[in-house]
Write a structure and sequence with these properties.
Layout: E1 19-23, E2 28-33, E3 41-46, H1 56-73, E4 79-84, H2 100-118, E5 122-127, H3 128-132, H4 137-148, H5 154-166
Parallel strand pairs: 1-4, 4-5
Antiparallel strand pairs: 1-2, 2-3
Helix pairs in contact: 1-2, 4-5
């Protein structure tokens, strides 16, 4: 895959065995745990909030508790690969002006802190452009489906895409 720095790369999907790839967010965190095959176990952490949104600290606590639960179930995680927040121009994913980039950065840091607290896993931050370049979500979805025959939605798709992207099969 072009644009993927060498130190992010793994030689193939099998080399992801034991890794957890994470698409961070303050509301929906996609994750994929790799068992050495091209069909990882996946899920989404939904941080539900009432009609009146909770303060950011409370939402982070809920996110952290859900992340701890995932890590307890997946007790053999050896590496956690988290998508690194970055500003995208134009139709940006995280806008500096709206504050969403700051909130995403807080959520990402909180996830990394929980991983550090709960495991001895290596934490790797991978910029969006390093794993998917400028591909749209639709293109990532079709390529992931081509690789393993499965259709994933939204945040799970990105978590799987991160793994396939750094393995060079997108």
């Amino acid at each position: 895959m072009t644009g993927c720095a060498e130190w992010y790369r793994v030689p193939n999907v099998a080399a992801l065995e034991g890794a957890l790839t994470v698409d961070p967010s303050i509301e929906n965190v996609g994750w994929a745990w790799w068992d050495g095959t091209d069909k990882p176990y996946t899920g989404v952490i939904h941080v539900k909030h009432p009609k009146k949104p909770q303060p950011i600290g409370k939402r982070l606590q809920v996110l952290g508790q859900h992340m701890k639960n995932v890590l307890l179930v997946l007790s053999c995680v050896n590496r956690v690969i988290i998508e690194q927040p970055e500003f995208w121009g134009g139709g940006s994913v995280a806008s500096a002006g709206s504050g969403s980039l700051g909130t995403l950065t807080l959520a990402t840091g909180y996830i990394a802190a929980v991983v550090e607290q709960m495991t001895e896993a290596e934490i790797v931050m991978v910029p969006v452009r390093a794993w998917k370049g400028t591909m749209s979500k639709a293109v990532v979805g079709s390529r992931v489906e081509r690789v393993n025959g499965k259709i994933y939605r939204d945040h799970e798709l990105d978590a799987v895409g991160i793994g396939f992207g750094i393995a060079g099969v997108l």
